[in-house]
Amino acid sequence: MAGQFIKCPNCHFEIELTEVLTSQIRDSLRAELEQELKKKESLLEKLKADLDDKEKQLKEEKLSIEAQVKEKIQKELERIKAEAQKEALEKLNVELQDLKSQIDEKEKRIAEFNQMELELRKKMRKLEKAKRKSKA
After folding, report:
1. pLDDT tens digits, 53-95
2. Which residues does 84 contact at the CB level (< 8 Å), separation at least 6?
3. pTM of the prediction?
4. DSSP string, the chain
5. Overall domain count for the chain
6. In which domain, by residue range, is 85 found?
7. 17: burial class by Cβ within 10 Å (0-12, 13-18, 19+)?
8. How far is the C-alpha of 67 from the C-alpha of 73, rounded, in Å?
């Protein structure tokens, strides 16, 4: 490797590189780069572990939220069902009261008609009795 030189950045003095010096610089750079690579790999693994933890946490939160939503939906369905049953029952009660009042009115009319029929029968018997008396 004869003829290779490096220049000092401060004084611009040229220094000849030898195989040993080049090898030492290469080994030193390699060690620095490997150390930096290990740090970055370690950091990358830590970031990956953090990301995995956050992903796991998000999945758990998602499941929890889904369970809460499902529970709220179930409660709302039960409330709506109960409300619908209550409305239906109230409507049926109104209809039942109306039917009862109709029946009461019809029963009164029937009782009135029965009373009128009894009075008519009494009158008819009196007329028949008077008619028989007048024939006799």
Report:
1. 999 999 999 999 999 999 999 999 999 999 999 999 999 999 9
2. none
3. 0.47
4. -TT-EEE-TTT--EEE--HHHHHHHHHHHHHHHHHHHHHHHHHHHHHHHHHHHHHHHHHHHHHHHHHHHHHHHHHHHHHHHHHHHHHHHHHHHHHHHHHHHHHHHHHHHHHHHHHHHHHHHHHHHHHHHHHHHHH-
5. 1
6. 5-135
7. middle
8. 10
